[in-house]
Design a protein that fits this description.
mainly alpha; 3-stranded antiparallel β-sheet; 6 helices
């Protein structure tokens, strides 16, 4: 007699020690302890043996911290958003993303201005050298002050 195949899926809340959490997340155990001290990661419960024991939620939080850092957020900004819940979390996250986009836009503008200045400086020097002219440091400084923008803005 053939019995039908039955598949059963249980969602087991697994607990893990810091070493396993470090391995699964790619975050060093020392960093995990630091994040815990700084309030970025909820405090781990201690097993009977005194070892830290973490739930799956800790792995999810570490992955969010890594994403935030990869996007250039400070740990303080990550902590501030991670403390929020529900709609406040969504609003806080969008506010932080918008602020970060603004920072990046300002950096791009600064880098564009520096690039233009470098290209102009390079062209001036190339033309000068093509005419067998060699500017002294004083002449170069005077040219820079009057002819091409070397200063940072």
């Amino acid at each position: 007699m053939m019995y039908p195949k039955v598949e059963v899926h249980f969602k087991v809340k697994r607990k893990m020690k810091i070493g396993e959490l470090a391995q699964r997340s790619g975050v060093a155990a020392s960093a995990i302890r630091y994040y815990e001290r700084e309030g970025l990661l909820p405090r781990a419960v201690r097993g009977a043996n005194g070892y830290r024991v973490y739930a799956e939620a800790a792995l999810e939080r570490l992955l969010l911290i890594q994403i935030g850092q990869n996007l250039g957020f400070t740990l303080e900004a990550i902590r501030a958003v991670s403390m929020l819940e529900g709609a406040a979390f969504q609003d806080g996250l969008l506010d932080k993303l918008d602020a970060r986009l603004g920072e990046i836009e300002r950096m791009v503008q600064t880098l564009d201005a520096q690039r233009a200045s470098l290209l102009e400086t390079r062209d001036k020097l190339t033309r000068s050298w093509a005419n067998n002219q060699c500017l002294s440091n004083a002449e170069f400084a005077a040219e820079a002050a009057h002819g091409f923008p070397l200063s940072r803005e």
